[in-house]
Every structure is written in C-alpha cells, then in structure tokens.
Specification:
The complex is a heterodimer of chains A (about 140) and B (about 575).
Chain A: H1 5-20, H2 26-37, E1 42-44, E2 48-50, E3 61-66, E4 70-77, E5 84-89, E6 98-103, E7 109-117, E8 122-129
Parallel strand pairs in A: 1-8
Antiparallel strand pairs in A: 2-3, 3-6, 4-5, 4-7, 7-8
Chain B: H1 4-18, H2 28-34, H3 37-41, E1 49-54, H4 87-94, H5 101-106, H6 111-118, H7 124-137, E2 142-145, H8 154-158, H9 162-171, E3 175-176, H10 186-194, E4 199-200, E5 206-207, E6 212-213, E7 220-225, E8 228-235, H11 240-243, E9 252-253, H12 258-270, E10 275-280, H13 284-293, E11 299-302, E12 313-315, E13 318-322, E14 329-338, E15 341-351, H14 361-371, H15 375-379, E16 381-385, H16 398-410, E17 415-418, E18 432-434, H17 435-440, E19 449-455, H18 456-471, E20 485-487, E21 489-494, E22 503-508, E23 513-514, E24 520-526, H19 538-549, E25 551-552, E26 560-563
Parallel strand pairs in B: 1-2, 2-3, 3-4, 8-10, 10-11, 11-13, 16-25, 17-24, 21-26
Antiparallel strand pairs in B: 1-14, 5-6, 5-9, 7-8, 12-13, 14-15, 16-18, 17-20, 19-24, 21-22, 22-23
Helix pairs in contact in B: 9-14, 16-19
Classes of the chains: A alpha+beta (about 140), B alpha/beta (about 575).
C-alpha cells in the first residue's frame, strides 16, 4: 500500500468537499451585489478582470482588476460558501484604480468584479475560473 | 495574402507525388522504389525566410512505429474541424489516396499492412538529413523546437534529459519552448536551459510568488533572416502545474496569459518585427482560439496535441502549422517577408520515412554514443506481442489496455487507471517487447504505481474531471490530453453534456455490477500528481507482467461507450 491512510483520507475529504458543497442559490450572490450597489443597475464592461482560466491551485488564485475611474470595487466569488471576497476603496488621490490579490476558490465558478464609479453608476466584469483535480496532461 | 487555393495546390502536389505508389502496391521494395528521399524533400524554395518546425519528439532518437488516432473528437466550435477528423474522412478532406504513403503517415487504417510496406518513421538522424537538406537550400533557416523533447525514453530518463540535449545541440535549433521538461524538476530544467546555445522561450512562464515574468526564460527572441527581422515568441504548455506535479517546479506559474501574449506581439512589432512567429505548446484548439483573439501573429507553430496536418489552418491573417510528434514529421514553412510584413507562405509537412530518408552519419554516431552505456538494458527482450500495441486515441489504446491489465493483475486491484497521455510509439504484432519499448510508453519522473481505495462516487468525480479537460467546449479550459484509460471498469460518456453529467453506466467488469457510489474499490494507477505517492515504478510492474505472460495478446476494448459525438 502506497498511500498512507492519512493521505487517502485527505484525498477522500477533498473529493467529498468537491462533491457535497451546497450549490448556493444566486440569492446570496445577489444579496452581496445589492449590498454594494443598493439595487442600482450594473452595466457589463469598463472593468478589466484578469484571472487564470484554470486555477493552478484553488487555495491561492492570483487575480487582478483595473477599473479606471472607480471609487470602489467589490470582488465576489459566486461559487464560494461565502461569496464576498473583498471591497477595495480608492481615494481621490489614487494614481490608478487597479489591484492584484490572491483569492481562494472552493470549486469551478465565476468571479465577479463590480466597480462603483464616481458618478454613482456601476460597471462589472466576470471571469470563469475552473478548479480541477488535475493529472493526465498529454 | 495567400488564398486557401494556393495552399491546396501545394498540398495536392505533394499528395499526387507521394500517392503514385497506389493501393495494393504494398511490397516493401515497391514502396521504397516508389518513394524517394528527393520526392519527400522536394520543395521549391519560396520567399526569403524558412522556418523548420519539430515538436513533441518525446526523446525518440531512433525510428519507431507510430499509429495516428482513430478517435479524435472535437466539441463546441471544433466539432468536425481538423484536427478532429480521422481515417477515411481525413483522407477525403486532403485528397489522400488510400494505401498511399501519406495515408500511412497520417491515418490509422491498415496500419499494420501499410507499416510492413513503408517501414518505420522518425529517428533524429533522419530528421538531421531533412534539416540539413533544407539548410542547403536556405542556409539561414530557423529551426524551432516546440518542446516535449527531454522526456519519454529509457536513456532520457536515466540521463535526466542529457541525451536529448546532446543530440539536439548537434541539430542546432534556434529556439525552444517547454512542457514535460519541467518534470525533470525546476533545478534540472534551469541548469539545462541555462546552458543551451539557443533561446529558451516562454512568454507565459511566470514567477509563481510574484506573478511576474520569470527571469529564467525569455518571452521572445529576435532573428535577422533573409533581410527580415523575425520575432519568435515562446508559449510553454499553459497547464503544467495542473496536468503535471506542481511540487516539482513550485517556483513557476504558467497559464495561457493571452493579454501578455498580445503585449509581447505588440512589443515585438514596436521593435521592428516584420514576421511574428509563435512557437507554441498550447495544443491545436487553444492555438486556434488564440489566433482569433490575439492580433498580429503571422505563424503559429503548434505543438502538444500531437496533430499532424498537411495544410496550414488559417484564422484571420494567422497560419497555424501542426507538425505531429515523436520525430515522425518535420514541417518546412517558407515565408515571403517584404515591406515589413508577411506577403506569402508556402508549407510542406514532410513525413520522415526511416527507410527512405538516409540517416545522417554524424548524427547516427552521436545517437549511438548516447545509447551505448545502456545498450544491454535497452535491448533486453521481456516478451512478445501478438497484437498491435498503440496508444493514441481519445479513449483507449492497446498499450494502455496492457498497462491496465498489468496493474489489475500484478497489484491485485478491482480497477486500474492509466493517464491519458498522447506520447508513446506503437509496436507491431509479432515484435519483441523490449525494456526500451516499455519505457517508451511509461518513462517519467513520477512513475510510481499507487494502490489505494476509492469510492464509486470519487471514481465518477475523477472521470468527470478528466472528461472536462478533454471535452469542455471552450478550448481554453482543455488541457490537451486524452481521456484517462480505465481497466476493470466500463462506462458511458456523453461528450456533449457539461461536467458532472457526461459519465454514466459505470460498471465493475469482473462482476458486471453497477459501481456503487458508497462502496470502496481497490484502484491501482500511476502518474499521480500528488507528492509522496508510493509504489513500484510502472515500468517494473509492466515488465513483471509481460515476463510472466511471455506472449501478450490484447483483445479489443469495448468497455467505453461514447455518445454525443
């Protein structure tokens, strides 16, 4: 036997986590959006959100955004048990409105960046990030 | 620019030329007479810049057999598009005569009969002859190696890639990019790449900690050729830390990094590049998508998915060249670069028929020198095969059926898993199985054969996960391997469905009972990406099995049902 029992358990636990994570209704994601926008309309575009197509490690996924003219940006991981990841505020003296951070993703999901602009309007960008167990590459 | 018709004329000329031996003309002598080195190399030099592309050699120094896939399914926009066309449909598309040398080189049907007529393919001493012939016509031709070079054989494994570095240095490439090389471990890759007398490229090789371009690999290199400024941008395999063990090269991060690719193309153009070539290990579908989204690439030399196409594929103003694997093909691309841009392109996929193309004596000697210390080990006969042993195909191949059988029997398991890699040459019926042949389909730096328990539920997750790596309709979410090979268990896969819904009817073959999600099964496999995996090396498991059997015969595998294609 080549896996220790502990490793086997770890593999099993990972699998279980993948399998049984409750697929959150959009309610909680919608709530996070509403919390940030106050229910205002969000227009897609005007924000650049960069993330890997497939995460190399779901526990630490490098993402970055660039939201010219934004006063605040909220990052939402739509498939995480707790979707709100971060809110970044930019003061009037900010040289640019960009930020790079690492986030944890529980499973394959869309990551959302919503930017609040100086005039009170909202813009957004969305990227799908796949979280996979890997192996078998050609 | 060049029309599709111009391309067709080129490839038709080649097909007509090579097709002259005709169907039924299968005697080896006749085939050899009908096919000459001059014919294979014939190419009217065009333009002012020549590119020579080799890729995915997988350390195959000597001529081999290599059967192309029978099943290669495309999904989404790539459904029914090349390279997802095989067999008779492929021959019809390119006007290739049944039974002709190109039919043998590019399609799977009648592989054994045609192989006996036309012989083995590849061998880096033959590749050297092709390269030298092109250089005789165009001395400053660029030779570009798409990677997966320092991996895949007994000698490469036991010298940690040194044999391939020695031989490729003699072939004098101008640039290279990477994939399996990184499984030698980052320290070894850095040491080898740092001493290369040519450029080691990868615009998508980043420092994992800072998420900035790695200082160890340059994104691109400039060359002055035929009075033109040529930029070659490297694109390493994007999913190395996912498809291969991340712990072996933890300092590096990869990814497609499309926006950085665009930035590099723009940067190269701003520095005066008149021709922009991407030396890619993306895989064909990823390259096709990238070509449609990144502006300003003239030529993509595509590797990773092992496809061989006799014509370039045009996407906008970008031409994608697919040059096969295992040293079986060399692509020659002549480009006319004038007034700061590409004005025309001419291409030929040269099949390296080992009995037709004369080996380069200096290269033969160098190859023999690499093999000499291991000769006795390489040549030891372990058994014999009655069946054609091959690997390529989306779902199963006889080599993996044999490996799975070895895992089931030698490791006393219910179910066996073998990775869906695309490398590994074929073996003809009646041939000896040598230790070298076993290493050619198993050699890797993480070849431990594990034995563990998995629940039915977890097995389904594994199959769904790998299935999505292959059949996600968006190529950027594919990893370019084939489906995991399964022994001892049958299943049904609907490739048109999303992840989680593709796999059904999982059946334990020894009892005929459905797999129970809650029950644990003993699973034997190899090539785990997890650190600390323990077990005997897979080549030792296969060797023990073949030795015990003496003669192996692999029955047709009907345990995978494929729908939705």
């Amino acid at each position: 036997m080549e896996f220790t029992r502990r490793e086997t358990l770890a593999i099993g636990a990972g699998a279980a986590a993948l399998a049984v994570l409750p697929i959150r209704g959009m309610a909680s994601v919608d709530e996070e959006i509403a919390d940030f926008t106050g229910g205002a309309e969000v227009v897609e575009g005007g924000v650049t959100l960069t993330a890997p197509e497939i995460a190399e490690n779901g526990n630490t996924v490098p993402i970055s955004f660039d939201a010219p003219g934004a006063v605040a940006v909220r990052i939402i991981a739509t498939g995480n048990p707790s979707p709100k990841v971060a809110t970044v505020n930019f003061g009037p003296l900010a040289g640019n409105q960009s930020c790079a951070l690492r986030i944890r993703l529980a499973r394959t999901q869309d990551v959302l960046a919503i930017a609040k602009m100086a005039d009170g309007s909202f813009k957004s960008a969305k990227v799908a990030v796949k979280v996979t167990i890997g192996g078998c590459g050609g | 620019m060049i029309s599709r018709r111009d391309f067709l004329q080129v490839s038709m000329a080649a097909a007509a030329l090579l097709g002259s031996s005709g169907f039924g003309n299968w005697a080896r002598l006749a085939a050899r007479q009908a096919l000459t080195q001059d014919q294979l190399l014939a190419f009217e030099t065009f333009g002012n810049v020549s590119l020579i592309h080799v890729t995915d050699i997988h350390a195959q120094l000597k001529p081999i057999w290599f059967r192309e896939p029978e099943v290669n399914l495309g999904v989404g926009e790539n459904r029914g598009q090349v390279p997802h066309i095989t067999g008779a449909a492929f021959r019809r598309l390119y006007g290739i005569e049944d039974g002709s040398p190109l039919a043998y080189a590019l399609t799977h049907d009648d592989f054994v009969a045609l192989g006996r007529a036309y012989g083995r393919v590849g061998g880096l001493d033959r590749v050297a002859t092709v390269v030298n012939a092109i250089r005789a016509e165009r001395p400053d031709a660029l030779l570009l190696d798409g990677g997966d070079t320092w991996h895949g054989s007994y000698t490469c494994h036991h010298t940690a890639g040194q044999d391939m570095v020695n031989v490729m240095n003699a072939l004098k490439p101008d640039a290279m990019t990477f994939h399996w090389e990184f499984t030698l471990g980052s320290e070894r890759v850095r040491a080898l790449a740092g001493e290369l007398p040519y450029a080691a490229l990868g615009q998508n090789i980043f420092d994992a900690e800072w998420d900035e371009p790695s200082e160890d690999f340059k994104p691109y290199a400039f060359f002055e050729r035929g009075g033109a400024k040529v930029a070659v941008i490297g694109q390493a395999f994007p999913y190395m830390p996912i498809a291969n063990p991340r712990w072996m090269f933890p300092e590096y991060s990869f990814g497609i990094r499309e926006s950085n690719m665009q930035a590099m193309v723009d940067e190269a153009r701003a520095q005066g590049a008149e021709l922009v070539v991407v030396l890619s290990h993306n895989g064909f579908d990823v390259d096709r998508k990238m070509a449609g989204r990144v502006q300003g690439i003239d030529v993509i030399l595509s590797g990773h998915t092992h496809d061989a196409l006799p014509e370039p594929v045009q996407v906008g103003q970008t031409y994608i060249i697919a040059s096969g694997s295992n040293g079986k093909f060399v692509s020659r691309v002549d480009v006319d670069v004038r007034d700061g841009r590409m004005m025309g392109l001419k291409h030929k996929l040269i099949p390296v028929f080992a009995d037709v193309i004369a080996p380069d004596p200096a290269m033969s000697a160098l190859i023999d020198e690499q093999r000499a210390p291991f000769r006795a080990q390489l040549e030891e006969v372990i058994g014999r095969t009655e069946s054609l042993l091959y690997r390529r195909g989306n779902f199963n191949g006889t080599w993996d059926d044999l490996i799975c059988q070895a895992l089931l029997e030698e490791r006393e398991a219910d179910i066996a898993l073998s990775p869906g890699v695309r490398w590994g040459p074929s073996l003809m019926p009646g041939e000896d199985i040598t230790r070298e042949a076993i290493f050619n389909v198993t050699a890797m730096t993480y070849g431990q054969a594990y034995r563990t328990e998995m629940t039915g539920e977890f097995l389904k997750i594994v199959l769904e996960d790998v299935g999505d790596n292959l059949f996600n309709p968006d190529p950027y979410y594919q990893q370019g391997g084939d489906m995991v090979r399964v022994g001892g268990m049958g299943f049904r896969i609907d490739i048109s469905k999303p992840q989680g819904q593709r796999i059904s009817e999982m059946t334990l073959l020894k009892t005929g009972e459905p797999i129970d999600p809650a029950k644990s099964y003993v699973v034997a496999g190899w090539a785990s990406v997890n650190k600390g995996t323990e077990g005997p090396m897979i080549w030792d498991v296969v060797e023990r099995h073949v030795r015990r059997k003496g003669v192996v015969e692999v029955p047709p595998n009907r345990s995978v049902k494929v729908v939705g294609a």
